[in-house]
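Hi R.,

Here's the chain you asked about this morning:
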Amino acid sequence: MIASPLPDLVGRHRECEALDDLLTGLRDDGSRVLVIRGEAGIGKTVLLEYLAAQASRTKVTRAQGIEADMELPYASLHQLCAPFLDELDDLPAPQRGALRVAFGMAAGDPPDRFLVGLAVLTLLTRASEARPVLVLIDDAQWLDQVSLQTLEFVARRLLAEAVAMVFAVRDPEGQDALTGLPALRIGGLDATAAGVLLETAVGGRLEKRIRDRFVAEMHGNPLALLEFSRGRSAAELAYGLDSSGHPIVQGPVASRIERDFAQRLGALPEATRTLLLIAAAEPVGDARLLARAAAMLKITPFAAPAKVAGLIELGESIRFRHPLVRSAVYHQAAPEARRSAHRALAAATDPVLDPDRRAWHAAQAADGPDEEVAAGLERAADRARQRGGIAAEAVLLERAAEVTPDRRPRGRRALAAAEAHFSAAAPDRATELATVAELCPLSPLDRARLARLRARILFARSRSRSDEAAPLLLDAAAQFTAAGSPLARETYLEAISATIFAGRVHGPAGARAAAIAARASGAPPSGSGAADLLLDGVAALLTDGYETGVPALRGALELLATEELPTREATVRWLLLVPVALEAFIHYAWDLHAWDTLSNRAVRLARDIGALGALPPALIYAGGVHIHYGDFAEADRMIDEADALAAATGHAPHKYATLVLAAWRGEADVASGIIEEARQRAEQRGEVSLLGAMGYIQGVLYNGLARYEEALEAARTGIEHDGFNFVGLSLIEHIEAATRCGELDQARSSLARLVDLTRAADSGWAGGATARSQALLADGEEADGLYRAAIVEFERGGVTVEVARSHLLYGEWLRRTHQRSLAREHLRKAHGMFDGMRAHAFAERARRELLATGEHVRAREAAVTSALTPQESQVATLAADGMTNAKIGAELFISPHTVEWHLRKVYTKLGINSRRALPGALASAPPSDRDDEGLVRAG
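And the predicted structure, written out as tokens:
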């Protein structure tokens, strides 16, 4: 960071052209994002200055990362948004509230950082309506963590807004930051350009041998070339620094530059060095604060010598010419001098207006344990948590533990710091602090929290370690029970969930063992009726069997669907428990209505509180419902939104629903690579449930393609794993494949298991699956009656894909029994339904069967909506329902400008020119869940 007049950018023509193109694109057709990467001193900040100078008719706003141990949540984001806060009241209420809490302007529930990100996106979008906005973020690797995460989210959601974001990131320190965004990597100047810059700096020509050696030693780093030549003549360079033994020219370039700065410090007056140390210890650079701190140390602010030495720039406050100057000033000072500076800053900081900064400086000034300082840091951590700054909370609690004199409160604070680090996705640091806590005396409740944390860390690192995690969770739950804590039942449910999703039911560390322990524990109520009933239902399912467990599970449904959630924390807890509820209702109750109800509530709740971490999996569950409804287009929209949100929030995409949809469509080319990758990951991590899922998915895929031997082998994998889920669905695929391959004994064995699994469900889905599977092994009138019963049952359950499949299997059986006329009727029905869903493989199976009956098959015309992308279709549907652009944007976590951009494309594709025409245009396309004879999904 060189705070000086913009120099001639020698040797940077390629980089300047790229930045010129960025500005042109911003003015012509909307958003741009760029990450400028390079080592210290390579010229990243100068390029940002060039960009700002070229940005005429553009609003420029900035944020600056500063190397410091202090982590103040949203500090950098607040700095960037300050010019736009007058528009805060125009934001939608949830976004406005989230931003006000994050910036400490109001009290409230801790906001989700992605909701804060949406608020920032909306704020920037509104500002860009007057003129384009250019956001410049320098030294992004040193932003506070939550600000960096939020800005990355905003960058990934930009699409049609007149907003450009350009980050400068120092490598290697920031090599893991902002990955996947468009990047411009800056290297050293080439020999010619570096020589020109060097000779310009020294004011004369250098002997080629000397110049080339100096340039090579500096690796073309512009800052190194300028700083090492500062105040030196050509002759001095020729006979001084060129000596290879000189300490300045040894080691990495950044280290050499810092050592050069440190040498200059030694020649400054002591008062000036102290003033610079105060400035280096206080990253904000508040001039009045620096003056007060200097007065407390009884020094006169005298910065001119440092300016003459080329270390600082003087303006409203002291500004270091480069972060390496700050680093040199701070680290070359003696420890007691640093503590003295922090002590003065703590005393000079207003305890009411800025208690967190005061607490941090007091902690840095401490030369030993100090309970008053520790308590101040703990209070600051609580304020950080309330603002949604989990990373800042973790850092503050960690420092509080370090300066706590008594072992008991030190253990409590270390445990809280470990929990915060784990929540901030720093499991290694969490493990270290958990060890610190373990060495201290803890209360029984804190011991239980520690056991639960260790289990969570194990399970987060690898689901294959559920054998180790489950006993820890059960031990924690037992300790919570002994302490009378409402966390006990929640922890038992967590233990069961961990083993379920790892795919282990039996054995000493399986879900059944966890359920037995939960039922025998006598744990007190958790405070959530829904959670308690869910635990009772899942435990009964695992211990007593289906006949007892399924009715108990159904008893939890009403509360899960309707229980009031008065706080954000209560909503988050509900979102955490709903996956295990869904797995139980899908795979044991066979209840598509419950699946629909709970997944849609999860989507709605996640949207309402802006929980973008929970929204993608909720959308995936909801998309699965629509696959079974036969509405593949709606499923596609949900999967597309989930993938976009996962990418924007830095999470891996959820492949399961994509694979299920590809399987039903018969897209082997899409599915095969992903399936193999998932299978390898499952085997490496011991995720048995994922192996079960792959067995089911490949069973559907290969049965649809009539590749029955492959379907048989795949489905066998799905029924042989020791998993809680996918066994029943895999049995259905296995029975069909086995009968087609003549493996009737295998089919009968699987049928017996399926009958046992579905007996207690009493749902249309379960009844249809059993009847159709029995029909595949029956003959004559018995088979005929069973096929008809399957169709009726699947219609009752609303499982449209299985209604179509039952018509197909019935039609195939009728053709083989020479009932061609009736066969055509059911095969036409199947073909029409599958063709409307775009289930291509099953439709092709039906078409071939129809051809075998002598039927001519007419291709269906493509629906109008097939031209729309999933995102366009979703936007169009919401707009047709009367929602404004602002409300659509809030619903989908995109800006109103992006909504309008999608709508313009929709209008073009549908051949309309106004919003009013949308309902009619969308209605003119045949619904994807309706076949040409009018069958509409049930439920």
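The chain has 46 helices and seven strands.

Let me know if you need anything else.
M.
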